[in-house]
Amino acid sequence: MKISARNQIAGKIVEIIKGATTSHVSIDIGGKIITASITNESVADMKLKVGEPATAIIKASDVMVGV
């Protein structure tokens, strides 16, 4: 699969917390954790499992900074 997003970070799934409709999928990217909120249907369709490799793909039009 090819995608246009340039910000792709490979890692390993360390946790999947399922809610009523949405799951939080945590990916370890070398000691740091990135968590994505995706539908439970997507978790099932992709057959996501803890311990499996996954890629965090970040696509955003804005980055905000606060102090």
From TrEMBL:
<dbReference type="GO" id="GO:0015689">
    <property type="term" value="P:molybdate ion transport"/>
</dbReference>
<keyword id="KW-0500">Molybdenum</keyword>
<dbReference type="InterPro" id="IPR008995">
    <property type="entry name" value="Mo/tungstate-bd_C_term_dom"/>
</dbReference>
<dbReference type="InterPro" id="IPR004606">
    <property type="entry name" value="Mop_domain"/>
</dbReference>
<dbReference type="InterPro" id="IPR005116">
    <property type="entry name" value="Transp-assoc_OB_typ1"/>
</dbReference>
<protein>
    <submittedName>
        <fullName>Transporter</fullName>
    </submittedName>
</protein>
<dbReference type="Pfam" id="PF03459">
    <property type="entry name" value="TOBE"/>
</dbReference>
<feature type="domain" description="Mop">
    <location>
        <begin position="2"/>
        <end position="67"/>
    </location>
</feature>
